[in-house]
Amino acid sequence: MELEELSVTEKAAMLSGGSEWDSRGNERAGIPSFVMSDGPHGVRRQLGAGDHLGLGASKPATCFPTAGTVANSWDPDLAEEMGKALGREAHDLDVNVLLGPGMNIKRNPLCGRNFEYYSEDPQVAGRLATGLVKGIQSNGVSSCPKHFAVNSQELRRQASNSVIDERTLRELYLTGFEIMIREASPWAIMTSYNQVNGTYAHENKHLLTEILRQEWGFDGTVISDWGGSNSAVAAVKAGGSLEMPSPGYTSVRELVGAVKAGTLAEADINVRAREVATLAERTRFEGVGRDDLLSDDVIKTHHEIARHVAENTAVLLRNGSADGTVAPALPLKPGTRVAVIGDMAETARYQGSGSSKVNATGEENLLDELKKMGGIDVVGYQQGYERHGGKNSVLVEDAVALAAADTTDVVVAVVGLDERSESEGLDRSTMAIAEGQNELVKALSATGKPVVVVLVAGSPVELPWFDDIASLLYIGLSGQAGASATARVLVGEVNPSGHLAETWPLKYTDCPSSGWYPAIGRDAIYREGPFVGYRYYQTAGVPVRFPFGYGLSYSTFTYSDLSSDENGITFSVTNDSDIPGATVAQMYVRGPQGGAMRPDRELKGFKKVFLGAHETKKVTIAFDRYTFRHYDVVPGTWKTETGEREILVGDSVVNLPLSVRESIQGDIDLCPPNPVLGNYLKGRVKDVTDNEMTALFGHGVIAPGKTTVFGENDPISSWVDSRGFVARTIAKTLTKREESVRRKTGQPDLNTLFILNMPPRAMCKMTQGMIDAAMVQAIVKIANGHTFRGIGSFVAGYFRNISANKRVEKELENK
């Protein structure tokens, strides 16, 4: 039977999940259901029903480095290798659709989910995601890149409206997705929770139809984030294919009712159902063995791949001083007597918290791995600090005693962020690491022994002791094999080649959006425009701790012989040392003088270059559709200005020893910027006026005040301001419970955080059909202080909902 021959009810049923992780198939049309699973850096095949946050047990799988760490490799081929392993495990664990990679732009370093995202730059995000998607789908498993689009904060994540100007939206926040869609052709994509300029992402026609499908040519399935669908009817009209997890039959009833009322065409349902059916067919595994558990061979092989990825992502941020007053401490010389200090050296932290958390097939710690390394002597270990606590002078004193001992030559101190600091559902409150750890590092440095800091964190932190240490190795969140990879880097068996995929500011207040992030109200206004990360720091002349693209090596490299033509650039890179190594060659473009407003320079291409000792290689980076274009808002299309560009080449955004000018013949003349943009023209976004922001956005932008009348899209957390005692008590109780659990366990209470961030309308989407839209409105009455009226409406709606669901279920069974 053809899909179009099915009843409207049957086709509508295919557009929402049948359970927490499964789609609904249709036997009559031969359409199987398919299984979805979290998996940006490891397959989280959940064993229990109704768990989308990783609170329960999941099948063992390899935990690879997180996206924010993988991005430091600047190597799409490495990402593809990792993707192939991820796809193989998804296949073996009975997963058809792997929910990843996460590729939102890192707007601010405090976003709790930054460890799951690649970069502040769309070129890096797009190219790395392309590699991962290709690798995953080579196994016949669909990737599902996320979160489309403009998802930049965890606070109020299901009830936040990202207000952004069209040019910034297109050039910065969507270009990474565009690169990945055009080059990797994913079979699915996940929409974000938030609204984009007032319309929820899963029902945003501008995003899903005009840009994603019509402009980029996406032909796959658009899946909502879990609970992220708002209106099933609006989603179908706009281009949303499948809402997850399972609203029971509530959405089915809404869609059928809209068709009967003439407000939704059956043809639209046919298109969306066909998209779901196509994904089911693309990921069908008939006749292929699937063990449902990983074999010993896969576990061993993939652990080694995870180590290989981690080795290529470690970033050497300091090794001695530029003036020679501090000698390099790495690699550790044969015979070095090493004191290992830090709780995270004994109990590794290698992934973030939330839905991406993997039940790893194995674990390592740096203390044990260093003991295995030949040629060095581990003379002792001290905890150094309370992992989740405050200051502990006894632990510091014991660590200092070990460091100062005559038997110690070098101190390796492992510090960083704990499990509470980086998590889905919770933004960081500070860029600082725990004060107890800062005091430890300062005390260790005061012993006069060389201190090597191994830094564990998924995003930038402040480093008040940076000038006091000998060496700093940043390993990010390096996955289950990160400890052995780190040990190999420390002793020189691996030459570090990672480069930072995001800028590290000196202090949080230097960040362009620090004054308005995260938005505590409904509207998150992106008033900084395109000046995010290095685009801001370079344009506004703000000093940073580490620039975008920065990374040291045990080798030294020389760039030379740059030339260009209409197709691209060519240059040479030489390894000047006796040690084989790799560098990341980066191409930046500076726009034509007198042209449209732009940041001072923008990354437009890169290539990881592997070189033997004293080897020279010619490197070519081609120009492409993204190199010289800008988005012209007035005609609503991409344009290229005719004029001279400066092409700059080097190994970071600030170290660009080569430059050449190239005249570009575009399709328009130079477009002088609107002088009313004022401070934007020099990147001084912290000084912009309301008039200048109006000029950027094309309309006035006013942040709303405190919510006093609550709707179905206001989060539960906002009920603390409710006039109703019951609603106010619910919000305050949940807030206190989450804080208490975090203090006691050292882990965020993800379930409570999810509820606090959840608006009532999501209850309709997350309860397997137990709550429908009418019951949501009853809950809203309670939020607004009409407690008894709301409870009465809720109870009456409950029984009506049960009857309506039974009718739909019976109709489907009779088919």
Descriptors:
single chain; 815 residues; alpha/beta; TIM Barrel; Rossmann fold; Immunoglobulin-like; 4 domains; four-stranded mixed beta sheet; 23 helices; 26 strands
Overall description:
By secondary structure, the chain is α/β, with parallel strands linked by helices. The longest helix is centred in the C-terminal third of the chain and has 28 residues, at 787-814. Helix 4 links the parallel strand 2 and strand 3 (142-143). The chain is built from 23 helices and 26 strands. 58% of the residues are buried. It has four domains: 3-282, TIM Barrel, CATH 3.20.20.300; 305-525, Glycoside hydrolase family 3 C-terminal domain (Rossmann fold); 555-672, Immunoglobulin-like; 716-814, no CATH class. Keywords: Carbohydrate metabolism, Glycosidase, Hydrolase.
Strand order of the largest sheet: 9-14-13-12-10-11
What's the overall geometry? globular
What structural class should be given to the helix and strand makeup? Answer: alpha/beta
CATH structural fold name of the largest domain: TIM Barrel
* CATH-level-4 superfamily name of the largest domain: Glycoside hydrolase, family 3, N-terminal domain
**In this structure, how is the largest beta sheet organized?**
6 strands, mixed
What is the count of structural domains? 4
**For the CA atoms, what is the radius of gyration?**
27 Å
Gap from first CA to last CA: 12 Å
Broad CATH class of the largest domain: Alpha Beta
Poorly predicted runs of 5 or more residues? none
The CATH architecture assignment of the largest domain turns out to be Alpha-Beta Barrel
Helix content: 25-40%
Count of strand segments:
26
Question: What is the number of helical segments per DSSP (H or I, 4+ residues)?
Answer: 23
Strand content: 15-25%
Write down the overall mean pLDDT: 94
Organism: Bifidobacterium commune
InterPro entries: Cellulose_deg_GH3, Fn3-like, GH, Glyco_hydro_3_AS, Glyco_hydro_3_C, Glyco_hydro_3_C_sf, Glyco_hydro_3_N, Glyco_hydro_3_N_sf
Keywords: Carbohydrate metabolism, Glycosidase, Hydrolase
Family: Belongs to the glycosyl hydrolase 3 family.
